Amino acid sequence: MGKWDDERQELLEAILAVDSLGLVSGASGNLSMRLEQKDSYGSILITPSQIPYSTIQISDLMVVNLHGDILEGQLTLSTETPMHLALYKHSSHIKAVVHTHSIYASALAVSGVELPPIVDELVVSVGGGVRVSEYAMPGSNELAENVCNSLEDRKAVLIRNHGLIGVGRSLSEAVNVCQLVERACQIYAIANSLGNVNVLSDDIVEMERRLFLGNLQ
Ligand SMILES: [Zn+2]
Question: How close is the Cα of 163 to the center of ligand 1, in Å?
Fold first, then answer.
C-alpha cells in the first residue's frame, strides 16, 4: 500500500468519468488533485503526458510538489503542469483541477466569446458567466498566469484558442463544473444559431450569486 493509494484511485475514477462523458479524447486534457497543503511545499497528484485515458494505470499518476519537482512517478509530466500548480497557489480553496478540450467550450474559446449567464445552474455552481483568458502558448507560465487572472471567483475559465479549465473543492466538483460549462456552451451555440439568446437578468444573477457564495462557506 502506498501513501496516496486512495487518492490515486479517486483520480483514476475521475479520469474514467471525463473520458466516458466525452469531455476528453485520446490523451488530451489533464486532471489533478491537491494532496497536502501544510506549507508552501504542498503537493498534488496529476496525470502524466501522452498516456491515453483508456489505458492509464494508477501507477502512471505522478506526485509533484508546488515547485514542480517530481516526488513520485517515472513518466513525463503533463505539459500543463504549470497551469495546475499556478491554480493551487492562486487559491487555497482549490482542491482539484480538470482541464479538457471539449468541443463546445473550445469553440467559444476559439471565437473569443465569453459564456454569458444563460442558465441558472451556471450561476449557482460556477459563479456566473465564464470568461475567456488572454492567449498564451500551451504549457507556458504566461498561460498559467492568464488563466488565474481570468478565474477570479469563478470555477471555470475558457482558455483562448485551446479549451476549458474547471476547479473545485473536490475532483467530483471539478468534473461537474467542466460537464456543466460544456453543456451551457452547447446550449449557447444552439440558441445563437436560432437567432436569439436571452441572458438571465442582473437581479436573478445577483440572487443566484448569493447562493453560489453561500455554498462556498
Ligand atoms: Zn490543453
Answer: 6
Q: How far is the CA of 147 from the centre of ligand 1 (A)?
A: 12
Predicted pLDDT of residue 136: 95
Task: Quote the pLDDT of residue 40.
Answer: 62
Question: In this predicted structure, what is the pLDDT of residue 214?
Answer: 87
Homologous superfamily of 5-215: Class II aldolase/adducin N-terminal domain (3.40.225.10)
pLDDT score recorded for residue 1: 60
Helix locations, the chain, DSSP H: 5-20, 81-90, 103-111, 120-126, 141-151, 171-194, 202-215
CA of 212 to the centre of ligand 1 (A): 27
Task: Name residues of the chain where pLDDT drops below 70.
Answer: 1, 38-40, 217
* Gap between the Cα atoms of 130 and 64, Å rounded: 29
The pLDDT of residue 13 = 95
Judge whether 152 counts as a catalytic residue.
no
Distance 204 CA to ligand 1 centre (A): 33
pLDDT of residue 116: 98
The sign of the CA dihedral 201, 207, 212, 213 is positive
Q: Say how many Å lie between the CA of residue 162 and the centre of ligand 1.
A: 6
CA atoms within 13 A on the CB side of 65: 8
d(CA 179, CA 161): 19
Of the listed 80, 134, 142, 173, which one is catalytic? Answer: 80
Q: Which three cell numbers stand for residue 147?
A: 488563466
